[in-house]
Amino acid sequence: MKRLLVLAAAAVSLFAANAQTFPGTKPISLVVPFAAGGPTDRVARDLAEALRKSMGGNANFVVENVNGAGGTIGVTKVAKAAADGHTLLLHHIGMASAPALYRKLQYKPLEDFEYLGMINEVPMTLIGKPQLAANNYRDFENYIRANAGKLNIAHAGLGSASHLCGLMWQSAINAKEAMTTIPFGGTAPAMNALVGGQVDLMCDQTTNTTGQIEAGRVKVFAVTTAKPLLGNKLLKDVPTLQEMGLKKFDLTIWHGLYAPKGTPPAVLAQINTALKLALKDPEFIKKQEGLGAVVVADKRVEPAAHKAFVASELDKLKPVIEAAGKFAD
Ligand code: MLT
After folding, report:
1. pLDDT tens readout for residues 54-74
2. How far apart are CA 222 and CA 245, in angstroms?
3. How far out from the chain centre does Cα 227 lie?
4. Nearest residue to 248 via CA among 306, 301, 172, 304
5. CA-CA distances (angstroms) from residue 65 to 30, 100, 258, 300, 309?
6. Whose CA is nearest to atom 5 of ligand 1?
7. Mind giving me the DSSP string for 223-262?
8. Best probe residue, ligand 1, of 162, 165, 206, 317 (max atoms within 8 Å of C-beta)
9. What is the distance between the alpha carbons of residues 30 and 65, in angstroms, rounded to a whole number?
10. Is the dihedral of CA 65, 37, 276, 309 positive or negative?
């Protein structure tokens, strides 16, 4: 018993020593499970800047893009990484959609990670290549039906946000087989193909589509939120899918921050404190809102509420994905 107490005391002082020295000079790798230049990468780079500031300038965050398999390769890397606070994951709704799609997933979202807090919520837009022969949603849906089997829809891999949106929309308009799906390592490369006319359409986050829509390089047909984006100058007149008759269609992408299971509690507390400060950073907020995202400011910035939210999304998405009846493996 005396030996155990000595050990425990040693562990505690180690923790404390470790916490005091975190982050030290070693860089903190912020793993993004999608290609550079895409919407998730964009959130990560803006957040890394804000975290650098909120940690008093003595933390070196390095964004590491590890893409593939709808984001599950990057997530697996963090699940297996050293639990020392120097490897973090920034991921989105894919954290909740992957278990229903991948039967051989190498991680459990609720068991293999420490939750550090939610970051933002991002609406999605249904967009098409500039040459597409439709200029509003009605014409667009009729065009899809008239060209069933001849069109394709791009996405960032099975389980990605763009895939999930395409899956839900095609189910909602009962056009599951109307188009082939084309996977990319992220919606950044997919967007290049869309702007170039190599692919026909995509559903993607406003953080990646705003610039292209503004420049007229892609056409926008609808937004996926339950309510119209009245506060968004560019998208305020774009109809919601619900307004176009797709009852209950409501999809908003959320991003959160995670660490490997077993990361020291004091280190987690330090990162969560820095995150909460970063989410109040006016520059970060301005950048996010400029791209149609909403920075989270409710209890979900706290780890427990973040985890509870992801658990509820897991339950919500499972039947939606199973209804589509397509598994990734
Ligand atoms: C990305 O960053 O490329 C996207 O988040 C991918 C997606 O999930 O659609």
Report:
1. 998 889 999 999 999 999 999
2. 12
3. 20
4. 172
5. 8, 24, 15, 25, 25
6. 40
7. E-SSS--TT-TTTTTSPBTTTTT-TT---EEEEEEEEETT
8. 162
9. 8
10. negative
What is the CA(19)–ligand 1 centre distance, in A? 33
Atom of ligand 1 nearest to the CA of 70: 8
- The contacts of residue 175 (CB under 8 Å, 6+ apart) are 144, 145, 148
- SS3 assignment, position 159: coil
Per-residue pLDDT reduced to its tens digit, 86-138: 999 999 999 999 999 898 899 999 999 999 999 999 999 999 999 999 999 99
Closest C-alpha among 207, 205, 203, 233 to residue 221: 203
Neighbours of 129 (CB within 10 A): 19
Contact assessment for residue 86 and residue 270, using Cβ atoms and an 8 Å cutoff: no
Name residue, tokens 């990734």: 328
CA of 254 to the centre of ligand 1 (A): 11
Ligand 1, CB within 6 Å, residue ranges: 34-35, 38-41, 92, 94, 156, 160-162, 186-188
> Residue 177: pLDDT band by 50, 70, 90 thresholds?
low
pTM: 0.92
Tell which one of 187, 202, 212, 255 to mutate to probe ligand 1, the residue whose CB is within 8 A of the most ligand atoms. 187
